């Protein structure tokens, strides 16, 4: 069988998110089909910088060594996010919020330390993750970053990252990126950054999609809108859940034939869109390797399995794989 990465060679890098277990358990599949990896959690703030002045680089270093030894690229995820960032980072010794100046200084220290360690070896960084609100009428999401620093925390994060590694491509990354209202907010955010001369090079479309949503029309409109910015687009965290967002069932223990073929059709149409916009899209990363492990087998419904990828739980090709490499 042809490798995914060869099939799309010259169009997009094909990536997978890995963790300490999957990089072992699915190593063969990973090496065969993928040419880029992202750390699912191991470069996030709470893992890499859990305590003041305490950095844990072992796992991230290991992923980088693996990537370099296997001829793969490494995407960095992520520097500034409202989630998985410890509370101490925002507070002083008395538990009060730090000042704007102090938080900016801490942000600079964190970004400098992490980004310069991997300078020249990580081809793209998700600098800011999920800063836009999902609610109509609200622009930026409420967060400690926004509360303490103000809206320009995003500009500063990109400036610090650029200083630490001038060659890394810097991305703004978000989910629900194909929702028309949120897409417009993301577009306006990035257009403003470009007008202010902020060093940003790409938009990350997470692409946490499912069998029913989003519509092809909304996805295409979003790709077109982001492409107008003149930046590269990366699909950063793709998975295609078997369940619609409102589906709360917990009694599905195996994917049905119908689900597998619906999923294959969805994947086929998604990749047709990616190819149509291949001048803008340069990488497609899945948020896992195979159905052996996915963050969706617990989220948002605890204990419910999901099967969102191109390879099944035994690493065997699913109909979706054949459909996209027709
Ligand atoms: C993503 N959020 C994050 O970027 C990634 O780091 C994490 O491992 C999984 C998904 C998507 C998301 C969320 O954080 C909250 C609600 C919906 C979707």
What's the CATH H-level homologous superfamily? Glycosidases
**Outline type:** globular
Main sheet record:
8 strands, parallel, barrel
CATH architecture label name: Alpha-Beta Barrel
CATH topology: TIM Barrel
Strand fraction: 15-25%
Oligomeric state of this protein: single chain
Give the CATH class. Answer: Alpha Beta
Q: Share of helix among residues?
A: 25-40%
What can be said about this structure in brief?
An eight-stranded parallel barrel has the order 1-2-3-4-5-6-8-9, surrounded by five helices. It has a single domain, classed as TIM Barrel, CATH 3.20.20. Helix 11 links the parallel strand 8 and strand 9.
Give your account of this protein's structure.
The chain is globular and about 55 Å long. The chain has helices at residues 4-7, 22-25, 27-33, 45-48, 58-69, 100-117, 144-149, 153-164, 180-195, 216-227, 257-276, 319-324, and strands at 13-18, 36-39, 73-80, 124-129, 169-174, 202-205, 208-210, 232-241, 281-286. The protein has one domain (4-324): TIM Barrel, CATH 3.20.20.80. It contains 12 helices and 9 strands. The model has no long low-confidence stretch (mean pLDDT 97). Bound molecules: ligand HAH. Residues 40, 83, 129, 175, 206, 208, 237, 295 line the site of ligand HAH.
Keywords:
eight-stranded parallel barrel; 12 helices; TIM Barrel; 326 residues; alpha/beta; binds ligand HAH
Structural topology:
Elements: H1 4-7, E1 13-18, H2 22-25, H3 27-33, E2 36-39, H4 45-48, H5 58-69, E3 73-80, H6 100-117, E4 124-129, H7 144-149, H8 153-164, E5 169-174, H9 180-195, E6 202-205, E7 208-210, H10 216-227, E8 232-241, H11 257-276, E9 281-286, H12 319-324
Parallel strand pairs: 1-2, 1-9, 2-3, 3-4, 4-5, 5-6, 6-8, 7-8, 8-9
Bound molecules: ligand HAH.
């Amino acid at each position: 069988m042809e490798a995914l990465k060869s099939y799309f060679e010259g169009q997009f890098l094909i990536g997978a998110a890995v963790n300490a277990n999957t990089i072992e358990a699915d190593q063969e599949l990973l090496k065969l089909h993928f040419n880029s990896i992202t750390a699912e959690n191991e470069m996030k703030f709470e893992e890499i910088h859990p305590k003041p002045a305490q950095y844990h680089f072992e796992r991230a270093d290991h992923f980088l060594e693996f990537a370099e030894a296997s001829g793969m690229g490494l995407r960095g995820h992520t520097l500034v996010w409202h989630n998985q960032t410890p509370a101490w980072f925002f507070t002083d010794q008395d538990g009060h919020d730090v000042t704007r100046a102090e938080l900016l200084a801490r942000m600079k220290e964190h970004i400098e330390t992490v980004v310069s360690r991997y300078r020249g070896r990580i081809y793209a960084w998700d600098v800011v993750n999920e800063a836009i609100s999902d609610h109509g009428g609200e622009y930026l999401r409420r967060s400690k970053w926004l509360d303490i620093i103000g809206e320009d925390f995003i500009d500063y994060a990109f400036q610090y990252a650029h200083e630490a590694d001038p060659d890394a491509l810097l991305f703004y990354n978000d989910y629900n990126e194909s929702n028309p209202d949120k897409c417009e907010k993301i577009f306006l955010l990035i257009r403003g950054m470009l007008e202010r001369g902020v060093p940003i090079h790409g938009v990350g479309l997470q692409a946490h999609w499912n069998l029913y949503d989003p519509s092809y029309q909304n996805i295409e409109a979003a790709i077109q809108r982001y492409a107008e910015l003149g930046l590269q687009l990366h699909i950063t965290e793709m998975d295609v859940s078997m369940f619609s967002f409102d589906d709360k069932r917990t009694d599905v223990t195996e994917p049905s034939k119908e689900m597998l073929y619906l999923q294959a059709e969805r994947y086929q149409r998604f990749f047709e869109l990616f190819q149509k916009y291949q001048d803008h899209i340069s990488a497609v990363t899945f948020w896992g390797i195979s159905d052996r492990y996915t963050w969706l087998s617990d989220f948002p419904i605890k204990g419910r399995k999901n099967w969102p990828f191109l390879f099944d739980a035994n690493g065997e090709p699913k109909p979706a794989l054949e459909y996209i490499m027709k």
